[in-house]
Structure formats: structure tokens, C-alpha cells
Amino acid sequence: MLSADQGEAQRFRDARIRLARLSSAEAAPVLRTMAQRVRRDDLQMIYRARLGHIGGDFSVIDILVTLYAAILNVDPARPRAADRDRLVLSKGHTAGALYATLAHCGFFARHELETFASPLSALNGHPNRTKVPGVETNTGPLGHGFPVAVGIALSARLQASPRRTFVVLGDGELQEGSNWEAAMTASHYGLSSVFAVVDRNRLQQGARTEETKQLEPLAAKWASFGWEVREVDGHDHGQLLDTFRRPGTTRPVCVIAHTVKGKGVSFMEDRVEWHHKVPSAEQVEIALRELSA
Amino acid sequence: MSHPTQTAALHDCRGAFADTLIALAREDDRIVAVCNDSVGSSNLTEFKAEFPDRMINVGIAEQDLVGVGAGLANGGMIPFVSAAAPFLTGRALEQVKADVAYSQAHVVLCGQSPGLAYGELGPTHHSIEDLSWLRAVADLPVVVPADPAQTAQAVRWAAAHPGPSYLRIPRIPTPDVTPPGSSFQPGRALQLTNGNDITVIAAGTMVSRALQAARSLADEGIQARVLNCAFVEPLDTEAVLAAAAQTRGIVVAEEATTTGGLGAAVATLTAQERPAHLRLIGVPRSFAPTGSTAFLLEHFGLTADHIAAAARDILAHDRR
After folding, report:
1. Which residues of chain A form beta strands (DSSP E)?
2. Domain at A214, CATH number
């Protein structure tokens, strides 16, 4: 099990306090800067490992950075604290994005990222809770994280705990029926502490979601399952902060975050082949320049 | 000659399961039951009446069922996830693997009405593959209690064990086979009779039949060692290898397919460590025909007579 980088964890706690005092508009540039750093680290992890899911990583990073850096009640030095908020990354193939975000928040040392996918590394191609602090459940096969998140929210209710549970779902992943089982359960039990965040990048492994198996009308689907639906630009940190800061009512909340696969690198954006393509050295150089702008 | 099991009181282990769970829930408010519309068939009606908030019913949705269980465990609860064994282990196998076993979540998976208990309802409802499937999943104890007393022990053990487990709760009524004061330790079989001629290793509903077979063999002067192997995983390798060394052969009996369950575990171990004469009694790799549970047990030879016959067959072939 990796453990917290104490210096980074302290910086994380201090930054959290500062961010909490800022309006969403004021906090957004800080989060954007951090997200670009996370993208650069992720890019280099994938280049080094010669594998990864860079397209989905880059579509979900702004969501993950916003949640960890400014929303979740978590302490990297106490990753199993009972009343911590939970984030379940159901789209486990974007583990690279999660690892880089966790490292930037101090859950473990950044240099560990260099081991991504190498033999015996804690940082597997999909996240493992027994090895990586901050990971709540082992995901990888799609459609697994959401029921687990619902179970976490049920435990919070039984314990009268104020903790909130966020589950980050891929949009293609919603083709798995288990998600809709979980959506019904959360709604039936009125679990208003659950936020399901859909990374709506409109692409899946081989093609567009709507060409593969149509998801639209997606908001209406969630609403018909009894969820409050909020739609945001998933790369606008101000909008993300606003929607996560706004408490729910009596219903669980679905945030449809409209995103772009490969966001931040011109030649990757909205291109299906960048689902899990590995960039060349030249492409890494160009991408790093764009992500430093 | 008398065979006491034919007249002894027979028990369905679901009662012991439910009573023990209620007792545990009174002691520990982390205990929660999770089911898939199976409150009645899991015998959890009384649990629900006493602990309505701690009875989570996710409806007919087994993938959700197991995932919700893993989430409850993440939140510090101790969930007993209960459903008909074929659906719990078949429909939700990937959740069992990823969310429970690989995630090392303290979830107690409770397979109800396993084996051939659903008789005439047919192969869709038979759970004869569960032991094979779950034996292949790492870090998941697979426990098959033999009677109400051992069911109660298994439930208490699973609640205290800080990791995942699968309990296969027998439904076919069986007589008591566990001597009072018996221990219940992970990975340890319980030796019920002493004997050095032949060994019968059994689990669950087959244990009483193994004992019955041992009694008829004793009438013929054959001393059988009966091992109740409630832990199919982890297997009591020491007891199995001792049986292979000290007796002339091993009969394994289980209410499951022989392709990957207890018999396969014993066969794999002995073949590599201490080759022994083996006979595996169970359901062959086939879908059952229509018939009651009693009919199917006879049809597949899951009986004391067949166990005894297999023992005699080994002794006839063993030229030691």
C-alpha cells in the first residue's frame, strides 16, 4: 500500500482551505492550472508505460481535479477515515487520470507515477484499493462502480453520517445494465447524498456512443429514473464547482458533464483512435507545449 | 442393522442461518442484510421485522445486489448478501470477483437453496456450478456447512473474518452431524469418524450420507474415515494428504458438479502431492433432467449407497 506524501498532503490541506474561501469563478483558474499539470504527468506516464487510456483520461481530469481539490472532504494522510467523502471511479480504465490526480493531492509521492504499469507497481492499469490510498473499490470491468457507490451511500444513511458519495461514470459505460439497477436503487431509497457524474465525451472505444448504442435522450432517462439532472461543461471548473457545491434536495443528483475526449491536445480532441493510442516522442513534445500554454 | 439418519430429525439450515444473523445483529449494529427480493426465501422475514432499516432489498438485480454489498462494507457495515445461489454466483460472478474478492471487501455472500434444492425448477435454478466458479476466484473462502450447528458457526465466523467469504447454506433437510463442542477453523476439516481403510470427504448435505455409508461399510468390517470438509477453500491440505497416505483411497461426495468443486480440489492436490485412488461423487458435467430433489439425488448417485459402493470399488482395485 502506498502512503501519503506528508509535504504534499499538508499543501493539499492548505490549498483546500484557500479554495473554500474563493467563489467558483475565483477558484476556477487555480483548478485549471492544476488540471493541466495532471494532464502533463498523465501524458508522460502513458508515454513511459507505452499504454493507457489517454482520451478518456483527458476528458475526466477536470472533473477529478475539481472533486479532489475543492469538493471532497478527504485527507490524504487519513485515506480510510470513516466519514471521508467517497469518490468511486467507475470508468476504471482511466486509472492514469486518477493516479496523477491523487499524487498531486498528496495521497502518495508523485515519483511513484513513474512506476505506472511497470512490473509489481501498485499502479496497475486499473485501480486497486488494497494498494493505492484514495481508491475506494477495484474497478475496470464497466458497470461496477455505481452499485458500490449506492452501497456506500446506504451505509452513510444507516450511520447518520454526513458524508457524500460521488461516482464518476463513462458515458459508454451506461450501456451496462447494472448502472440502471443502481440508479433505481438510489432513487428508491432517496439517496440524496449520491452524485453520479457522467463523463459525456460521446465516444467509446470503437466509435461514437450514438452510433454504437444510442444513449440520448440521456438527461430524460436519468430524470425518469427519479434523479435530479444537472448539465454542465465538464471542462469549466467554475461550472463544475457550482454544481458540486449546490446541495441536493431529496433526490440523488446526476451531473451530465459534457466533455471532449482527449481535451487539451489539439490532435487528440474528439478523435476515437485516442481512446488508448500511445503518443510518439514528437507528439508528446507537441502535447506538452499545448498543455503548458 | 439400523441407519439412524433415516429416522433422525431433519433440519433445513436456513433457520440456523437466520437465527444466528438476528443474534449477531442484536450484538453488533454493523450487521446488515442485503437481498434481491428474496426476504422470504432467505428466511429473513423475522430479521426484517426486528431490523427494518438494516434489511436492504435492491429488488431483482443481482449485480446491484453484490455491488451494494461491497459499498456497505466500504462504509464500515458488515453486509450479509443473500440470494438464491445460482443467481448470486452466476449472474453476479464478475461483481463477486472484482467488487468483493479482489477488492477484499468484508462481504458475506450467502448462497441460498444451493445444489439441487430447486429440483423440478430445473437447471436454471440448480446451483451446481457455484463451487467450481468460486474456487477459481482468488482470496475468497468457500464454505459449505453441513447442518444447522455448523451453519451457525459459519455465520459467526464470516461476521468476524475481516475479508470476503461465500457461505453455501444447505436447503435440503439434513440430520445433525456436528458433534457438540466441535471447533470451526478456516481451512480445517472436521474428522467425524476414525478409520484407516478408506476415507470419505464430504461437504454440506453429503456429510450425513457419508456417515451413513460409513456405518454400512463398518457392518462389513471396513473402517471409513469421514471428513467434513466445510472449507472447500481453503482446503485442509494436511487432512487430505494424511488421508491419501494413511487410507487406501478417497471418495469425495458433494452436491455440485465434479468439474471443479471439492472433488476436483482433492484430485488436484493428491495427483501432485500424494497420488491416491479416488472416486468423485457429484453431478457430472450435464444439465439435470426433470425431477424432484430426491429423484435427482438418486439419479446422480448422491446417496449413501453410492458412496459405500465407490469405497468398495476402490478397495477391490487397490492391490496394496
Report:
1. 86-89, 165-170, 194-200, 228-233, 253-258
2. 3.40.50.970
**Closest partner residue to A137 among B56, B61, B103, by Cβ?**
B103
CA nearest neighbour of B162 among B122, B107, B201:
B107
pLDDT in tens, B149-191: 999 999 999 999 999 999 999 999 999 999 999 999 999 999 9
Whether the CB of A181 is below 8 Å from some CB of chain B: the reply is yes
pLDDT digits (tens, 9 = 90+) for B100-151: 999 999 999 999 999 999 999 999 999 999 999 999 999 999 999 999 999 9
Residue B181 domain flag:
no
The pTM of the full predicted model, rounded to 2 decimals, is 0.96
**ipTM attached to this prediction:** 0.97
Residue A224's domain spans which residues?
6-291
Contact yes or no for A158 and B54 at CB 8 A: yes
Full residue range of the structural domain in which residue B120 is found: 4-169
The Cα A232–Cα B103 span in angstroms is: 32
What distance in Å separates the CA atoms of residue A165 and residue A143, rounded to the nearest whole number?
Answer: 16
Asked if the Cβ–Cβ distance from B94 to A144 is below 8 Å, we say yes
CATH of the domain at B259: 3.40.50.920
**Number of structural domains in chain A:** 1
Nearest to A147 among B71, B75, B77 (CB): B71
Mapped onto helix, strand or coil, the DSSP state of residue B102 is helix
Contact at CB, B72 and A155, closer than 8 angstroms: yes
Mutate to test the interface with B, among A137, A139, A163, A193 (most CBs of B within 10 A): A137
| Domain-ending residue, one of B117, B138, B169 | B169
